[in-house]
User: Fold this.
Amino acid sequence: MRKALYILGTLNDHDVDWLSEAGTTRLLEPGELVIKEGRPVDTLFIVLEGELLVFSGIMEIARLPAGEIVGEISFVDARPPSASVKAAIKSSVLGIPAEVLRAKLAKDSNFASRFYRAVAVFLADRLRHTTSRFGYGSAKQDGASVASTDEVNPELHDSLDQAAARFDKLLRGIAARSAG
Assistant:
């Protein structure tokens, strides 16, 4: 849920309401693809329930539980994805069409600023984690120990509870929309 913490911790309540209203819920069966390696991504997905599997060829790269976000990199890099994503188990996602999100980003500069900052902070964290995982750099820099790659960015500590509350709000908004 780390990616969701970066995104939902940076967005505000109005932004989360907009995501809930702009998106549509999609139920996924195990094995159903949501992103295909090499094909343009036309939707940003938020995992509501279940688990998605990120893979390239036959190699599993990651498992994404509820709260994770998929497809966000396509908003900062126009190249097609280098991995595929499918449902590992029965899952549900909220899909926000790329053209709708791009229109919102173009029209609302405050939202765009928060969205792109969240993606940048997340990608920086991912790079640190990847660098550490492959053994680049040392365990110490200038005599001080480097923070564990499992630690959340200190800038986000204050927004963790708020991010979790926003995810719950997103789920409630979707449930209310489905019921009404």
Observations:
- Residues 20 and 174 are 6 Å apart (CA to CA).
- The two ends are 28 Å apart (CA to CA).
